């Protein structure tokens, strides 16, 4: 579903990604972790073309992301992305947030889009809040709306960039629970997170990054039980 081959990227003279290669198969959940500044956000942003690369090749569901002829808007509609900050439209109600891109990008009819939005709102347990505005919801609720909004587009894969790190502790689990459900239903996911309980529960593989490189890309149990690099060992010792 997602393939990165020898991906390198520079900001000016600074190399932020160095020869990164990995694959995410359909239905796989891959957790990306590593120290701050190691290139995790940049890596997952390259997957839906939010960050261009200078070397290598990225293919998502058969689409060559870095081919100039690729329609990036179409690609992004197929790959849902959820960031640390919820990025809902503050002046639109929850149901309008869920409907807008379906109508504008996919050309869905408004009634069908609204029905789909309400269905997904129910799935994240927020049916009662359809007519509220984002500012009236807690951070955890807003993040669940952001996930529902991405799902409204029928994505082939979902990318998450530290979706719980801006949340108060008591709200983290309500968001992780939605993500666990999604993983169990077979969604293909790349998740940047330091929530190692989540990784233990649902990840198939863990990618550990350091200084722009993929240092480990291994089966979850192998990674946790027997990290191969000193860097990953140090990292795990600090966060678990
Ligand atoms: P992580 O998500 O692992 O914390 P990032 O991918 O955000 O790491 O950043 C990796 C490195 O690239 C950091 O050193 C960061 O300062 C740098 N960086 C990120 N975005 C930019 C940018 N737009 N311009 C220049 N440097 C950047
Ligand atoms: Mg980051």
Automatic annotation (TrEMBL):
> Which residue ranges does UniProt annotate as crossing the membrane?
none
Pfam families reported in the protein's UniProt record:
ABC_tran
**Entry GO MF terms:** ABC-type amino acid transporter activity; ATP binding; ATP hydrolysis activity
Q: Where in the cell is it found?
A: Cell inner membrane
* Family matches, as SMART domains: AAA (SM00382)
The membrane topology noted for this protein in its Swiss-Prot or TrEMBL record is: Peripheral membrane protein
In this chain the ABC transporter domain maps to 2-236
Mind telling me which GO cellular component terms the entry cites? plasma membrane
The UniProt keywords, alphabetically, are:
Amino-acid transport, ATP-binding, Cell membrane, Membrane, Nucleotide-binding, Transport
Family, as annotated: Belongs to the ABC transporter superfamily.
Full protein name: L-glutamate ABC transporter ATP-binding protein /L-aspartate ABC transporter ATP-binding protein
Native organism is Enterobacillus tribolii
């Amino acid at each position: 579903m997602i393939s990165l081959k020898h991906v390198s990227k520079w900001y000016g003279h600074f190399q932020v990604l160095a020869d990164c290669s990995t694959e995410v198969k359909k239905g796989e959940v891959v957790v990306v972790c590593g120290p701050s500044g190691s290139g995790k956000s940049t890596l997952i942003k390259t997957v839906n073309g939010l960050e261009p690369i200078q070397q290598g090749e990225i293919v998502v569901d058969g689409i060559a992301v870095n081919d100039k002829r690729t329609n990036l808007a179409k690609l992004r509609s197929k790959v849902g992305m959820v960031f640390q900050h919820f990025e809902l439209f503050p002046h639109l109600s929850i149901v309008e947030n869920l409907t807008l891109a379906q109508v504008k990008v996919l050309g869905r009819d408004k009634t069908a889009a609204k029905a789909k939005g309400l269905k997904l709102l129910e799935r994240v347990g927020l049916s009662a809040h359809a007519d509220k505005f984002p500012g009236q919801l807690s951070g955890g609720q807003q993040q669940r709306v952001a996930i529902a909004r991405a799902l409204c587009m029928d994505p082939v894969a979902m990318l998450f960039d530290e979706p719980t790190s801006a949340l108060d502790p008591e709200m983290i689990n309500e968001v992780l629970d939605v993500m666990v459900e999604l993983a169990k239903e077979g969604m293909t996911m790349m998740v940047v997170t330091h929530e190692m309980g989540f990784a233990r529960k649902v990840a198939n593989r863990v990618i550990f990054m350091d200084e722009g490189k993929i240092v480990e890309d291994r089966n979850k149990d192998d990674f946790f039980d027997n990290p191969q690099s000193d860097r990953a060992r140090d990292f795990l010792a600090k966060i678990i």
